[in-house]
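User: C-alpha cells in, sequence out, please.
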C-alpha cells in the first residue's frame, strides 16, 4: 500500500533530521502522510522554476475527488488520472 512507504519514510533517520531542522526554523509545521488517488502529471525536473503542489483533504475519496476534478484542467490530466 502506498501509505506504508510514507510511514516508513517518516520513521527514517534522514526524514527525522529534516523534520527537526524544519521545526526549529519554521513558524508552523504540519506533517501529513497521505495517498495519491489521482495526480495531474509528473514534474519536469529539467526546467528551472517554482512549482506549486496542492493537496486536498477529505474524509473519503468520494468527498475529495470532485474538488480535485474541478480544479485540474482537462488538458493537464494524464493517463494516470483514471
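Assistant: Sequence out:
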Amino acid at each position: 500500500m502506498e501509505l506504508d512507504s510514507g510511514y516508513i519514510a517518516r520513521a527514517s533517520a534522514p526524514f527525522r533530521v529534516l523534520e527537526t531542522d524544519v521545526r526549529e526554523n519554521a513558524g508552523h509545521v504540519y506533517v501529513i502522510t497521505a495517498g495519491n488517488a489521482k495526480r495531474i502529471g509528473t514534474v519536469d525536473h529539467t526546467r528551472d522554476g517554482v512549482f506549486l503542489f496542492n493537496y486536498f483533504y477529505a474524509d473519503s475519496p468520494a468527498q475529495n475527488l470532485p474538488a480535485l476534478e474541478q480544479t485540474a484542467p482537462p488538458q493537464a490530466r494524464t493517463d494516470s488520472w483514471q
